[in-house]
Task: structure prediction
Amino acid sequence: MTIESPRPMLSNYAGLSRASRLRWRIERRAHPLNLGLFRFGAVFVGILLSLAAAPLFTSASAGTLYSSMWSGTLGTTTGFENVLTIAIPLILSGLAASIPYRLQLWNVGIDGQIYMGAWAATGISYHLASQRSFVIIPLMLLAAMVAGSVWILLPTLARVYLGVSEVITTFLMNFVALGWLMYWATGPWYAPSAAGGVFAIAIPTQADLGLLHLNNIVVDWGILIALGLPLAFWAANRYSRWGYEVTMIGASEKAGRYAGMNVKRTLIGTMLIGGALGGLAGALNLMGTNYQLTPGVTNNTGFNGLIIAVLAGANEIGVLMLGIVYSILLSAGDAIQVVGGSADMVFAVIGITLIFGTFGEAYARLHLVRTRTPGMSSTEPEVGP
Result:
């Protein structure tokens, strides 16, 4: 019996081309690139490419489509006012998701918190209908924030003490909140003029937020809250003890415990803040736009807020910027329907920008490297990426 020498195999391997013995693999960068720059840059590239391809999916000409989008957003006073109105609950929903996201917590129940905030604000307005605006409005906002916090409390305690995923519990609480709202809007608070629809009695006129006049631009006073809160939380996260603890615990809960921080208290408090912001978004939408309790008080705001928080990387200034950008997209979606376009096109753009934003962050954190296969001659130089 003859045993063949393995040398022919080695010679065959040596005969392989140099390129065939190089392998690619993904490695984490030792020093990540500017995450914010690449994330936002990728988002805007995704938006531009999506808008460039939009005329291919509608019967309207490119000029008509773009003209309608411009007129319905930034090109007219009415369009700009609509953008700002949409931005108010959207920015607050983005904050409601981004604050817990700093601790690697997912607040997927923002829609439910919006429902509960609007419900609580409605109840306060009914019981204090005889009061003046300076009394009833602050109490409505406070009640909405408390309701949002209470609504997220059970999923938070289950996550902190029992290890139950907050993704599942907060998401399921949305349906419970919707059922609760439906009961009140079709039962005790049902408006006789609803004609079979799901609408509660309109809130008193003194519960209206009122309008802010900026030259020719007219928008409700909630815009000041939506613009101010991201700046306040940005400062708090960088210059307060709470912000330092959130950053530390978000990077490593073990490191936070080792440093003597109360991790559970921080987790619970941060989730409650997220719930309060969701409830506040519901109250502002009720008091500035809807004026009566209805399931349409959310309009997918919680879902869009979650996307904004992820794309912004839980950066409050990024949430503010992307909130305005997405408000422009949503307002454009209403405008293109006039010229035969589909509002679903906007959701396609949002999906594409989410994908591009993910690519941008991945590129900032990771890179491709070439590696040699075992046995490759070390005298051959390796070509870098």
Q: What stands out?
A: Residues 4 and 10 are 13 Å apart (CA to CA). The first strand starts at residue 22 and ends at 28. Residues 133-162 form the longest helix (30 residues). The beta strands are 22-28, 211-214, 217-220, 366-372.
